Amino acid sequence: MTSLKTLLNLLLFLFLFFQYCSATDTISPNQLVKDGNVVVSIDGIFALGFFSPGNSKNRYIGIWYNKIQEQTVVWVANRDNPVKRSTGILKFDQYGNLALFDQSDILWSTNVSFLANNSIAKLSDSGNLVITDVKSKRAVWQSFDYPTNTFLSGMKLGLNLKTGLNRFLTSWKSLDDPARGDYTFELDPRGSPEFFLRKGLTRRWRSGPWDGRALNGVPEMTRSFIFNYNFTDNDDEIFMTYTIYNTSIFSRFLLDELGSVQRSTWLDGPRRWNTFWSGPRDKCDHYGECGAYGSCNSNTALECSCLPGFTPKSPRDWYLRDGSHGCERKRDFFCGNGDGFLMFGHVKV
């Protein structure tokens, strides 16, 4: 009798154990994610739960690297509507949306319509939270379509021309506040598509267009021993994406709160993020630093110079190292009077 009881207890334990393990990456229609609960992707790469950034006491639903000692958040749901206490609950609402509740108040929702008892939310090892209709097995919402300040492997950054969906990065306000900050990193599809870093509406930096291997203003992207970048430009979509060859390497593309875009990779030894590249790199990397018909060179005492045949439009400001007014022609242009074209190398135009 004792051995039978022991066997039954063991079977019950195994049932509960495997049930728990199989559910750790999933939020079901009747499941509540309370403050202190954590949803973990199947291989333990990413985790979802409540967190407080920096010195803040506010609580947010976020996704972070689960195997990194320094908590590094890559996505925030309620970035503009924090929970003020530890009373938040993430669950499916009566309309079938995954929503964040603070008592009776809804602070955030996926805002799509489908039956709650036919859907689940699953956190993948790519860091993507995906809501799937169980019957049709169709994804009806995913966090990768609504990035915050981090561009992850497998994510698309750019435009869906059919639906109008625009995936772009927005900085945090500060290390203590993940609300939408001053900076955005967004694709401009006009002409040769390229990405612009903006502060408000002001352009601060640009990536340059895709040259077949990389964005031409970021030559470090051509180092393909870790990453594989791809750029798609067709009638349906314009976007950039990338993959990481070795899935044990943790790497992110971040727009930080100071207005810098940077690629960094986690180093297990010193336990820190190591920056591969960042932009803007220096004064000459700022958008329009020397104005129209001006050229910028960080290796010269006076960074700005005019192209041949041009002179500073505002000489006084120019020699005070303000080249934003640019240059103008020394004389009127008449094609055929000795005017022609000059070739310039190692410049971003």
UniProtKB/TrEMBL annotation:
CDD domains xref list: B_lectin
Protein name, UniProt field: Bulb-type lectin domain-containing protein
PANTHER family reported in the protein's UniProt record: BULB-TYPE LECTIN DOMAIN-CONTAINING PROTEIN (PTHR32444), G-TYPE LECTIN S-RECEPTOR-LIKE SERINE_THREONINE-PROTEIN KINASE RKS1 (PTHR32444:SF63)
Position of the signal peptide: 1-23
Entry keywords, A to Z: Disulfide bond, Signal
Cited InterPro entries: Bulb-type_lectin_dom (IPR001480), Bulb-type_lectin_dom_sf (IPR036426), S_locus_glycoprot_dom (IPR000858)
Organism superkingdom: Eukaryota
GO biological process: recognition of pollen
Bulb-type lectin domain ranges (all copies): 24-144
